[in-house]
Amino acid sequence: MNKEIKIFLADDHPIFREGLIKIIQKEKSFRICGSAANGNEAMSFIRTKKPDVAILDISMPGLNGIDIAKLIKEEELNTFPIILTMYNDEEYLDSALENGVTGYLLKDSTLTEIIECIKAVINGGYYISKELQAYLINGKKQSVCKSDLVKMIDNLTPTERQILKLLSQNKTSSQIACELFVSYRTIQNHRMNISHKLGITGHNSLLMFAIENKPML
Asked: Measuring CA to CA, which residue among 62, 199, 178 is closest to residue 209?
């Protein structure tokens, strides 16, 4: 990675924030361009300075990390939001992903995980803390062998597979409908059919499946 990556950090715990800054700056291609202790200050910085990555705590005075991620998405700012939190909670993960978060880490993550997460989101991918990866597909631990997974995906129609691929790019049903020149309801019906064929249930589970299996789509 040759390009210098500008990273902004927002957390209301000064000791943790300063410690994380020291850790991240050890990576040669990373540069901390700023930090904040509250959400409102963080959002103002992101709008004006446009960092490549914003690492955000969920719980802060003012705007929280997910609020900021939502604004980044709505305002189409070219910053990748990463949530770094103490909450090992599936509802928070769901909300974060719905609002454009591409990286979700727990505060007890290793240095290696933090570096891997930053690199993954910068390259257009997703990175979810290992403790929550079991929830990605169906909200519970389960495993599907690769051959069975290939069969399930091959059972989809070309349109269904295209929709699944667009979902893996974090596009909403409305965005997919516009891209494919069909109605929002049509996309929702397709999503229901895809979920049925894949045996997937649960809030956001189809999105999680698409993200987890993006290379196969």
From this structure: 199
